């Protein structure tokens, strides 16, 4: 019987205002009520639901809640926060709360690569060594089947640890500019906006995969003395100081573009070489396989396994049996002219590509480029692989003929790049300085708008960047003179937003009275719904990198056209187009239940204030929830999916509004008093934590020990040209790392960590290097290392047996 073809799921339905989102909101309400009626773990929970009818992005609603909560004097500074999501902006938002007890739970986007790695026992894919068919401890045949239904693993991103890494990499010691981690984090978040986000394109000289964030971070440290302080404070941006950053970046544009071209050419040439090499190896493998087919019926006594002892043959008989089976199967397939059964390729579809998914694709490409030889396969896999290569050889050659380098009209690496850039991307000549300056001003507005959006909230619902591309950094001149102001505006209604973001092909998610505005030629806004549009792939390789040049929406034109058909909407559609409210839920067993119930008995229309003593400190205003009838039946939104009605619903819900901040109140971006936080990272964790390029980092040579280059540990940065005496004092740099330190008899070290290495990094600990009888030695990793009286990173810490880095860090990382 032929299966009914499944209806295509249009992911555009996941947009506020669609019937899908309205149904999802009902399902969420049902889920909350169900858990509060049946799950004991939910009996004391307060649940706040802000669905798609409430304007704003979900993560920013959460941030607003945290900002308001931490502004209250009753707030517990050691409150923990956990947020789920893959978007990179969640990391920036979490940092911007200045709440160290913050974690982001996210799917492990690299888990598929880990799963497809070969079994270490038989080298086949699809299972691990403990479940290998060749293992004596292998479980039953049923359990050895490939598990295709395993759950995707999740990982935690600990913001407090990220803060430590950022501090280590950014910290400076500049007279007159006190180090402030919170201010530095805000500056770092702000700099990340230059690399691109949901509201602004990245500057042409900044590509995230080229290390753009590291470039900006190093520039920031370099120009800090000139800036005289931080670029941001409490959600405000000091464009006068930002000028130093973009000026420094602009002076490097030529070099960045030339280096980018050189790197692209190296990758391209390397890919071509690897392709040719793989094709050659494939042909050789095919030839060897054909030879093996011919020799199968009369294998010589001194064949491939003649070097094995009897014991080896017995131990490897399963491998030999698999080899014979694979050869037979391959020969049979070849004689019948039919290929061996192949596993279907896995195709993953997504709604929105996140930064991690993009980076995963790029890392996969880089890993493929780094491969010099194909994985070693067992005979079964080898037979499949060879026959597949033969079948695909013709197709690959045809495809190779079609492949060519992406076109690039601008050619940023050649003289005249700026003129070509503005002419091609903006249709401007360099002489049109006022127009170019307007582009720069709009971009600066965007930087300020986005930063306020992250730290304060949405300052204007109508602002947008009206260009497809960003200006060049070298054109950011005298930006502190820009008078940046934003128009006070209200958010669009759900249907208005739908008409502004959906294509005509997705009109089924919009009420029928609006359809003609998207499809008819006489529509006053038909130009907003093109069926064909340009995707600028200039200089791009992947489709997702292209710039989609859809027309910008003029909200006034859009609303005027829509106003002509609002009277044709049904009652249900009018309700769906209204702005909703945030809802607070508690169960009957919660101590605030009775108090929340009183809003349904009061006669006045005034909102009630939450009693913080009953809600564990939660404050705000509450009122009747139009969707709630206490103790009634909550009918299942999915009756055909074994979800029963909830009779005599024991939960209650009320509308909820956050308390409003006083006029002129500033959300201060600093740590709160009473916060308790301990550092987690140790020396080894921070050893390579730097924004510097790999060529500038410290390297370890087993003959010469560690080679210090530029910045290594923060102590080096703060005390350059100085060293520590055996009691913590300072001496000249000349006697520092070289006096029985990094250069004196390096026995031990990393390579002798299990042999009582007498030096860690050096011999007797470098008596004049970071302390007496210690420093980075005094026992190495063992023979006192990592825990005994003369070891760790110096028996006595960074400076001997006294304070001031003497006995410091608790006797080193494992000393006294």
Automatic annotation (TrEMBL):
Main subcellular localisation: nucleus
Residue ranges constituting the CCHC-type domain according to the UniProt record: 119-133
Keywords (A to Z) from UniProt: Coiled coil, Exonuclease, Hydrolase, Metal-binding, mRNA processing, Nuclease, Nucleus, rRNA processing, Transcription, Transcription regulation, Transcription termination, Zinc, Zinc-finger
InterPro entries cross-referenced by the UniProt entry: 5_3_exoribonuclease (IPR027073), Xrn1_helical (IPR041412), Xrn1_N (IPR004859), Xrn2/3/4 (IPR017151), Znf_CCHC (IPR001878)
Any GO MF annotation of the entry: zinc ion binding
CDD domains from the UniProt entry: PIN_XRN1-2-like
PANTHER family: 5'-3' EXORIBONUCLEASE 2, 5'->3' EXORIBONUCLEASE
Family under the similarity heading: Belongs to the 5'-3' exonuclease family. XRN2/RAT1 subfamily.
Subunit structure: Interacts with RAI1; the interaction is direct, stabilizes RAT1 protein structure and may stimulate its exoribonuclease activity. The interaction also stimulates RAI1 pyrophosphohydrolase activity, probably by recruiting it to mRNA substrates.
Name of the protein this chain belongs to: 5'-3' exoribonuclease
Protein encoded by which gene: RAT1_2
């Amino acid at each position: 019987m032929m299966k009914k073809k499944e209806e295509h799921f249009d992911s555009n339905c996941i947009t506020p205002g669609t019937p899908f989102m309205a149904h999802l909101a009902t399902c969420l309400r049902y889920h909350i009520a169900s858990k509060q009626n049946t799950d004991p773990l939910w009996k004391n929970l307060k649940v706040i639901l802000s669905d798609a009818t409430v304007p704003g992005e979900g993560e920013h609603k959460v941030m607003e809640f945290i900002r308001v909560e931490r502004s209250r004097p009753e707030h517990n500074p050691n409150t923990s926060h956990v947020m789920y999501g893959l978007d990179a902006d969640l990391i920036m938002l979490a940092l911007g709360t200045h709440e160290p007890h913050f974690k982001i739970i996210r799917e492990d986007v690299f888990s598929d690569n880990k799963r497809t790695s070969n079994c270490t026992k038989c080298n086949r894919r699809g299972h691990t060594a403990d479940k290998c068919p060749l293992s004596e401890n292998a479980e039953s045949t049923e359990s050895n089947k490939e598990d295709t239904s395993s759950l995707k693993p999740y990982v935690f991103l600990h913001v407090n640890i990220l803060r430590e890494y950022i501090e280590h990499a950014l910290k400076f010691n500049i007279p007159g500019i006190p180090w402030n981690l919170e201010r530095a984090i805000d500056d770092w978040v702000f700099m990340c906006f230059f690399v691109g986000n949901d509201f602004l394109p990245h500057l042409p000289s900044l590509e995230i995969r080229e290390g753009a964030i590291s470039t900006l971070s190093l520039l920031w440290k370099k120009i800090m003395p000139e800036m005289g302080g931080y670029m941001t404070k409490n959600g405000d941006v000091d464009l006068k100081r930002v000028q130093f950053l973009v000026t420094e970046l602009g002076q490097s544009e030529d070099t960045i573009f030339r280096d980018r071209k050189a790197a692209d050419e190296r990758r391209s040439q390397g890919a071509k070489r690897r392709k040719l090499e793989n094709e050659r190896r494939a042909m050789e493998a095919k030839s060897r396989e054909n030879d093996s087919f011919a020799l199968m019926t009369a294998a010589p006594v001194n064949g491939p396994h003649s070097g094995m002892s009897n014991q080896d043959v017995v131990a490897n008989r399963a491998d030999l049996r698999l080899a014979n089976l694979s050869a037979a199967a391959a020969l049979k397939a070849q004689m019948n002219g039919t290929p061996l059964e192949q596993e279907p390729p896995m195709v993953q579809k997504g709604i929105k590509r996140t930064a991690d998914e993009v980076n995963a694709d790029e890392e996969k490409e880089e890993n493929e480029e780094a491969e010099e030889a194909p994985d070693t396969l067992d005979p079964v896999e080898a037979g499949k692989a060879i026959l597949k290569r033969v079948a695909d050889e013709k197709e690959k050659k045809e495809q190779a003929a079609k492949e060519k380098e992406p076109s690039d009209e601008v050619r940023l690496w050649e003289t005249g790049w700026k003129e070509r850039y503005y002419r091609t991307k903006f249709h401007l000549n360099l002489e049109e300085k006022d127009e170019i300056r307007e582009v720069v001003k709009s971009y600066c507005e965007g930087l300020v708008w986005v930063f306020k959006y992250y730290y304060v909230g949405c300052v204007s619902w109508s602002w947008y960047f009206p260009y497809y591309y960003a200006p060049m950094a070298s054109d950011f001149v005298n930006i502190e003179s820009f008078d940046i102001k934003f128009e006070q505006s209200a958010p669009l209604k759900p249907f208005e937003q739908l008409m502004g973001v959906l294509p005509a092909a997705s009109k089924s998610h919009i009420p029928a009275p609006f359809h003609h505005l998207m499809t008819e030629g006489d529509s006053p806004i038909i130009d907003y719904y093109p069926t064909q549009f340009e995707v600028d792939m200039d200089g791009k390789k992947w489709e997702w990198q292209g710039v989609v040049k859809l027309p910008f929406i003029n909200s006034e034109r859009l609303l005027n056209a829509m106003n002509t058909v609002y009277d044709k909407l049904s009652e249900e559609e009018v309700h769906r187009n209204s702005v909703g409210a945030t809802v607070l839920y508690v169960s009957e067993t919660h101590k605030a239940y009775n108090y929340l119930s009183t809003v349904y008995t009061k006669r006045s229309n005034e909102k009630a204030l939450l009693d913080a003593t009953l809600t564990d400190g939660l404050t705000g205003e509450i009122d009747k929830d139009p969707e709630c009838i206490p103790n009634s039946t909550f009918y299942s939104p999915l009756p055909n999916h074994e979800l029963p009605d909830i009779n005599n619903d024991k939960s209650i819900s009320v509308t909820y509004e956050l308390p409003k901040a006083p006029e002129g109140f500033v959300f201060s971006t600093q740590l709160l008093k009473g916060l308790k936080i301990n550092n987690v990272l140790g020396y080894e964790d921070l050893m390579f934590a730097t924004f510097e390029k790999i060529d500038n980092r410290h390297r370890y040579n087993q003959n010469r020990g560690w080679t210090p280059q530029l910045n290594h540990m923060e102590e080096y940065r703060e005390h350059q040209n100085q060293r520590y005496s055996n009691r913590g004092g300072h001496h000249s740099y000349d006697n520092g790392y070289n006096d029985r330190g990094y250069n004196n008899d390096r026995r031990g070290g990393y390579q002798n960590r299990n042999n009582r290495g007498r030096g860690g990094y050096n011999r007797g600990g470098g008596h004049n290097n970071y302390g007496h009888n210690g420093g980075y030695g005094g026992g190495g990793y063992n023979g006192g290392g990592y825990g005994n009286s003369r070891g760790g990173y110096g028996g006595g810490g960074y400076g001997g047996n006294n304070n001031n880095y003497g006995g410091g860090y608790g006797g080193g990382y494992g000393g006294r």
